[in-house]
Amino acid sequence: MRGLKGKRVVVTGGARGIGRAAVERLLEEGARVAVIDQDAEGCRALNSALPEVVTVCADVADEAATEQAFTEIEQDLGGLDALFNNAGISAPRAFPELSAAQWRRTLGVDLDGVFLCARAAARRMGEGVIINMGSVSGMLGMPGYADYNAAKAGVIELTRTLALELAPRLRVVCISPGYVLTPMQEAEYSAEEMAALNARIPLQRHADPTEIAALVAFLASDEATFITGSNLVIDGGESAGGTASL
Questions:
Q1: SS3 of 140, please?
Q2: Is 148 a catalytic residue?
Q3: What is the pLDDT of residues 97-149, one digit of tens each?
Q4: Model pTM greater than 0.90?
Q5: Cα gap 148→145, rounded to integer Å
Q6: Between 100-107 and 146-166, two packed helices, what is the crossing angle to 10 degrees?
Q7: Closest CA to 226 of 157, 167, 161
Q8: Could you tell me the CA-to-CA distances from 221 to 21, 88, 132 in Å, in that order?
Q9: Which helix (H) or strand (E) holds 128?
Q10: Domains of the chain
Q11: Residue 245 pLDDT greater than 60, yes or no
């Protein structure tokens, strides 16, 4: 990708899954990368495999911890050019059984965390890009995920608003994947359920995290300098027929 070499990029939730794939792709493109993740063991494993990555163990839903993490990263990298706001959690639960505590925690990480990290990054960047992680779940109803769906819908609308407020200095974009084969996804579904899901997707499979990472790299690069305010869906055609709502 043109213009990624030397760019200083923060990836939240970068220890595993899509975040880890994005870290690896950004490094391949010559970027300098820092990771914020609440998973201390995952951060240690990442440091062992990729010692050039700056890691900070913090909960993105914690305002003070998030500000401290960005301060440390700014000092280590000497500035900031891009943020991939990827950290998120999900735990399916039928709405009548959804506790207020789970509701608050999911929105705390998946929506408040995006807000806190975007604000911290915007205050520290001269020019650059904020890439938020949405989901097709934020566009179409999906039973069992009221908290997650609401959070992701909020991320999509927050992205549009920030794109207007922060232009022309910063670009703000959203990525909305469908089903991606991540550890979080594998933990939620049995093999039989995964096969049934694949059958409903036009491309007949889950995305690989590296496919999402490729889009992140493109959006962070100088190849995407006229893209802002967009919600880019990457779901194998799933939402084209509304199958996400089944």
A1: coil
A2: yes
A3: 999 999 999 999 999 999 999 999 999 999 999 999 999 999 988 899 999 99
A4: yes
A5: 5
A6: 30
A7: 167
A8: 16, 23, 15
A9: strand 128-133
A10: 8-225 (3.40.50.720)
A11: no
